Amino acid sequence: MPSFSVRFMKIVCDDTGGEHRACQAAFMVDAASLSAAAQQAETDFCRQRRVRDWTIFADVLELRTPPA
User: pLDDT > 70: what percent of the chain?
Assistant: First the structure.
């Protein structure tokens, strides 16, 4: 089963108006597919933060296959 690196990112502005991504959480997930990995990470994030919707804390979900 492949492993995926999942990061929840919040887009924030600095004092000059430039946008930056701030990592709110990172997970390693073993899943059969990219969509299954995203679903598992969302569930884990919500359970950890005790919320129903991960978008309260993050704007973007990044999924990557770790290098071999």
Answer: 96
